[in-house]
Amino acid sequence: MSPLPQGRARGGLLAAWPPAAMAAVVLLAGLVVTAALCYREWRMAEARADALHASLADAAEARLHDPLDAASVALRAMQTVFLSHVAMDQAAFARYQANLRAVDELPGYRTTGFARYRPPAPGAPPSYRYELVTPIEGNEAVMGIDIARQPANLRALERARDSDTVVMSAPFRLAQAQEADSRALGVTLRLPVYSPGQVPADPDERRAREVGALAISLQLDPMVRAALQGRILEFLHVDIRDLDTGPEPAVVFAGGPLPAHAGTPLVRELQFGGRRWEVRMHPLERRPGLVHVRSTAVAGALITVLLSMLLWSVAGTHRRALALGQRMSARFSESEARFRTLNELLPVLVLLADAPGQRITYANQAARQRLGDVVGTPLPALFADPRAREAMPGAGVSGGWDGHEVAIGQAGRAFWARVSLAQVVVDGAPHLLLTATDISEHRELTERLSYQATHDALTELCNRREFERRLSEALRERAVDPQAPPFALLYFDLDQFKVINDLSGHIAGDQLLVELVLALRLNLREGDMLARLGGDEFGLLAFDVDEAMAVALGERLRRCIDTVRFVWQGRTYSVSASIGVVLADRPGISLKDVMAWADSACYQAKEAGRNRVHVYREDDDSTRRLGEMEWVNRLRAAMEQDRLLLDYQEIVPVGEAAGAGAHAELLLRLRDESGDEIMPGSFLPAAERYGLMPAVDRWVIRTAVANFARLHPRGEALRTCAINLSGASIEDEDLADFILACIAEHGVPAERFCLEITETVAVRSLLKVAAVIARLREAGCRIALDDFGAGMSSFGYLKNLPVDLIKIDGSFIRELDEDPMSRTIVSAIVQIGHQRGLKVVAEWVDNARVLEILAELGVDYAQGFALHRPQRVVFQR
């Protein structure tokens, strides 16, 4: 189309308006639009800033709760210690506090103290003097302080005692702090301590059982700064006041002088421990969007001025007709050059291609630097992925691309870019305009984060989450296509891994895992997926296998692990693996089913002797562990609801060993939810497997000592009370302290108690057991070696174990009147025991003939149904 008709079409409008007037109108309209955009940008920036400050203010309130909650947890934990163990000195107090570790990382933590309650004398107030303090260094001044001399603290402590809740003091200057300003301020959190037993349920019982109060001192400045560090203190000026100190709130935290440009304060109220803190936060910057507003204003004004000037120029040139045509052309060329110059400086890749042939006709500087000389090259050739070339819209197609992420460039130099493609008209001809932004770094970061979320950091294997996702996907694919080849899940657990961790530390264990994974990778098939499911547990998805192939693969992995020799600091270790195999060859199975079956198969492999492969069968005893876990929950509930029972069975002297008083062994029972009595064989195996035996043993010890005079009908005439100890308990270094503390608390002579340990436990942990036994015997307790003779090496250990009695295993006693070999073994045990100066007890005596033989052989005591059937202890009848 000729430009002449266009010029005439425009001429009517240009003639009606003088060039200056048109330029002024355009300039005014452009400035109005620019101002509106600037105002909108400013309001949006203000809204974002307000939302950020409000979010930070809410976060500040929540994060200030965290250290106070942590201190409360520490107080509650120490209260629990006192409820179960009132005999506390400075060393025990410090040790319990160190073991709890609840305040190790608590910023501002200063000290934990215990103030003992002394009842008021006539005409005088009660006394709460600090007797125990930890750490003692730097806190010596706290010892001996009487809380009762501070009326406000006394009222708070009494409120805490009656409600059994944590109370917090008003801010005060800490005696331990070195600073001279508000940084020396601190608070004290207090919690009452009651006498041992269940937690008191009402105020009257709490007052009656009050023995003192626990307190934790916190320095406020480091506590608050640690809680609010980061963006909160970066964007907000924070001042905190205590609202409950009187007409003038006390300073909790001072953020320094308030800047002149600070914004309207955000106020939050924090309530904790019976006190209210006002958290007043002033935004430090109220002009977060100023840079964007300035940029919008400058760009809009510049564009408006240029547009008005251009319009003025065009109108003036048209009015001067053909005489000024050459000058107008020159100005147009100059404007085009300026546009091209600005386009050249853009950091975004800009390419222009003719629509019919899709060949590039223009590339800006950024495009030439990243792609080289691409003018004349077909536009689709820029895409490294053939699918992107096919998906690229051609000329004449409406729409285009907007924000597609594709790889651009040739192999070896390709990079990821976010591409937008649109159809434009240039000089009256259709073109394709492509803009691309390099997102390689962003994509690399995204892929790295995705990798870290789905892989184990130590072994670089897939983690449990990714493994279960891939397993679920495989199960769904098989559900859609039942004819698809089956796959197998191999679940394996290292057998001796804990030994290496215990002997050489977790660093050695981690290094072993890395070496095992390297060895396992060499034995995997292509396409199989190996993952670390946690700790020393691994999973493998093997695709397109039958049962025989899965077992063969499991055996190969088992042998691979078995042959690894791990050397660490001069020691050589070997490990093995128990592998469970599940074949996913049936329809309708779920992720939960497959994982449970695999775990059951692995468990069966361990039960069968470890270092083997076991294929899951539907008749496997997979419910046993579920049953044991159910017993664990029932046993915990029984202990909480005081449904454990004690029976006693008398131990009767044989022949000339008779003497005054009675001897009895305590036997554990359980009353279930319906009131039925359950024997220990039903629940003790679960308790041993899942680590509940120490708690059960301590319950028996504490109950027996506290009710010693009410165990047997003969009351305090009971000469010996025998208590069985599990292996987990006897290996606990604190067991002796617990037993001796219970005996001392209730004033029962230590020689009245006989503690029984099985021979297998004693042999397994000889050094630990010997140390505990030695302490108990030194205090007066007697020690019995139970089930003697069942360990196959009993006589060799007798000379190394400091015991007082040996109880012959009942398997030898039961057939004593029929089996000559049993009689010979019992005779040998009696002779060796007497040579060592030990008393000998025979268990499972079921008839009078066996008792006669025991008397002939010189056995000192006998125990069994023929002599006495177990009866309920007196205080539980």
CATH superfamily of the largest domain: EAL domain
The low-confidence runs, each spanning 5 or more residues with pLDDT under 50, are 1-11
The total strand number stands at: 33
What structural category characterises the helix and strand content? alpha+beta
Instruction: Note the main sheet.
Output: 11 strands, mixed
How large is the count of helical segments?
28
Task: Please provide a written account of the structure.
- This is EAL domain-containing protein.
- With 877 residues, this protein is α+β, with helices and mostly antiparallel strands.
- Helix content is 44%, strand content 23%.
- The strands form six sheets. Strands 23, 24, 25, 26, 27, 28, 29, 30, 31, 32 and 33 form an eleven-stranded mixed sheet that branches. Strands 1, 2, 3, 4, 5 and 6 form a six-stranded antiparallel sheet that branches.
- The radius of gyration is 42 Å and the shape is flat.
- Mean pLDDT is 82; it is low at 1-11.
